[in-house]
Design goal:
- The strands form 4 sheets. An 8-stranded parallel beta barrel has the order 2-3-4-5-6-9-11-12, surrounded by 6 helices. A two-stranded antiparallel sheet has the order 1-15. The chain has a two-stranded antiparallel ribbon with strand order 7-8.
- The chain contains 15 helices and 15 strands.
- It starts with a helix and ends with a helix.
- Helices cover 37% and strands 16% of the residues.
- The chain has a single domain, classed as Glycosidases (TIM Barrel).
- It has helices at residues 3-10, 56-59, 66-76, 101-106, 114-123, 135-138, 149-165, 197-212, 225-234, 248-275, 298-321, 388-402, 421-437, 481-492, 497-503, and strands spanning 42-43, 49-53, 128-132, 168-174, 218-223, 280-292, 323-325, 332-334, 345-357, 365-368, 406-411, 442-447, 467-470, 476-479, 494-495.
- Residues 1-25 have low confidence and may be disordered.
- Bound molecules: beta-D-fucopyranose.
- Beta-D-fucopyranose binds at residues 15, 55, 223-224, 227, 286, 348, 410, 448, 455-456, 464.
- Beta-D-fucopyranose is lined by residues 15, 55, 223-224, 227, 286, 348, 410, 448, 455-456, 464.
Length: 507
């Protein structure tokens, strides 16, 4: 079997699902709705965290990072993919130039809205918020020993706003974006392949922990490392736009990310010990449920399992065992102090993918983000199939595998008309509740996202917000009807009979 091909395919399921093929006929029996045994209400554990998630590069103004440079290049060369949501063209940002320059630069104008946004979130019953701090914003130039004072002031303001609103922070340290200077070549290597990348990242983390560590009990060191590595190094969709032919680059990048994670893990725990406080450190993993496209094709099943292992579990297994083994490759690295360095499992969950094999070419397969011929299937604006039960399975598997508490660090839907988001939320939370009944310790749920934002290569068109951002009216925030539904859930600490009645089924 061609190992590389399988790996590439295995990882070909990254956030921007790009494989869409027409299907044919009835081929699968999917149990879409778990039989309702327990009647509502579905109450969640005491102290459950109800929040939303964002990332700096998606809501704050542009900084001199790899993404910032990419955005400038798309502007300069007038590049834009006009194919519409779900069809990302490498080296482009969908519909980017449809938005005026001020919006492209300021995104959601988050910095001037912290107070307003956090106060409104709390008024809607949220008690938590996950966000990232921008490494580039704090250290925009190479060799800086101390961070940019303006950036420090901005983030001091952010923490003050969180505190006065009463939102519990979860801080992400690496969410896809790194400083442009890290991409200058050093000893033939750039970015996360550089030998000194871990050192540089650690310098940033050290400052963050010293400055704001006292205010933070929950940390995500890395967001979706597999998506980052795959999109950036194999598929060429994200900076650094590489399409490497072998798994070596992937191995090096993942190894350095793991080393960076270990350093951050130790630093955060050392600081917490000094302060005599508890802290939880983990990684947010992009998960999907991977289903065989056809029940009758055993190879579809085999491939689905292999892809799930490679895409979801390889990295998490490494955090657990200390060994980075990349499925279907020879890569096996032992990383010092890595074993057991996750206090919780962070699950980002966006739906289901289908795996379709080809008996005549067993090493080739396709990843389909939805089944175009299934009239019952619900999909997002990006064409991603919705599958609440898949979340239940992932939660149970993650819990059994690692025996750790879980945070749902992201779960959400691109839905500009907000016609599906309320059902999406209610049904995913019902699936979460089921997992809790099955013994899974889920401690919190962070909906992606608080507000519409810059969806990476998908641009501004994919609307994931509980709140709409009116880009024509000074970034005005307008809560969507689903924000009201989520608010009711947060306040009730669960799903009421009334909400279940309205949103427990589609349509
Ligand atoms: C996840 C990313 C997040 C956002 C959502 C829609 O893969 O972590 O930044 O883009 O997808």
């Amino acid at each position: 079997m061609n190992r590389r091909r399988l790996l590439v395919g295995a990882l070909g399921v990254a956030a921007a699902g790009v494989f869409v093929l027409p299907g044919s006929g009835t081929r699968r029996r999917v149990e879409r709705v778990k039989p309702i045994i327990e009647p509502p209400p579905y109450r969640f554990p005491k102290d459950f965290l109800w929040g939303t998630a964002t990332a700096a590069a998606q809501i704050e103004r542009r900084v001199p990072s790899d993404w910032g440079r990419f955005e400038e290049r798309v502007e300069r060369d007038q590049l834009t993919a006009t194919k519409g949501p779900g069809n990302v063209v490498p080296g482009n940002i969908s519909g980017y130039l449809d938005y005026p320059p001020s919006i492209r630069v300021r995104k959601t104008d988050a910095e001037t809205h912290y107070d307003e946004d956090f106060t409104a979130a709390v008024a809607q019953g949220h008690n938590a918020y996950r966000f990232s701090l921008s490494w580039t914003r704090l250290f925009p130039n190479a060799g800086m020993k101390v961070p940019n004072p303006e950036a420090v002031e901005t983030y001091d303001g952010l923490f003050a706003s969180l505190e006065s609103a009463g939102l519990d922070p979860m801080v992400t340290l690496f969410h896809f974006e790194s400083p442009a200077w890290l991409w200058e070549e050093k000893e033939g290597q750039r970015g996360w392949e550089r030998e000194d990348a871990v050192e540089h990242f650690d310098h940033f983390v050290k400052f963050v922990v010293q400055r704001w560590g006292r205010k933070v009990r929950r940390w995500t060191t890395l967001n979706e490392p597999m998506v980052y590595a795959y999109n950036g190094y194999l598929q060429g969709l994200f900076p650094p736009f590489e399409t490497r032919s072998g798994p070596e680059a992937l191995g090096k990048v993942l190894e350095n990310l793991l080393r960076a994670h270990v350093r951050a893990y130790k630093r955060i725990h050392a600081a917490a010990r000094e302060q005599g406080v508890r802290t939880e450190v983990g990684v947010a993993t992009h998960t999907r449920s991977f289903l065989p496209f056809r029940d009758h094709a055993p190879l579809d099943r085999v491939v689905a399992e292999k892809v799930e292992q490679a895409f979801v579990w390889d990295f998490l297994d490494a955090l657990d065992s200390g060994h980075l083994r990349i499925s279907n490759t020879e890569i096996h690295r032992i990383i010092p102090d890595l074993a057991g360095s996750q206090d919780y499992v962070g699950i980002n969950y966006y739906g289901r993918f289908y795996l379709k094999s080809d008996l005549l070419h067993p090493t080739k397969f396709e990843v389909l983000p939805s089944d175009p011929e299934d009239p019952l299937e619900q999909v997002s604006d990006l064409g991603w199939a919705i599958d609440p039960q898949g979340l239940h399975q992932i939660l149970v598997r993650a819990s059994r595998r690692y025996q750790r508490p879980i945070y749902i660090t992201e779960n959400g839907l691109a839905d500009a008309t907000d016609s599906r988001r309320s059902s999406f939320i209610v049904q995913h939370l019902r699936a979460t509740w089921d997992a809790i009944q099955d013994g899974v310790e889920v401690r919190g749920y962070y909906h992606w996202s608080l507000l519409d934002n810059f969806e990476w290569a998908e641009g501004f068109g994919a609307r994931f917000g509980l709140w709409e951002v009116d880009y024509t009216d000074n970034y005005r925030r307008i809560p969507r009807p689903s924000a009201v539904v989520y608010s009711e859930i947060c306040r009730e600490n669960g799903i009421s009979a009334g909400l279940w009645e309205r949103f427990g089924r589609w349509g």
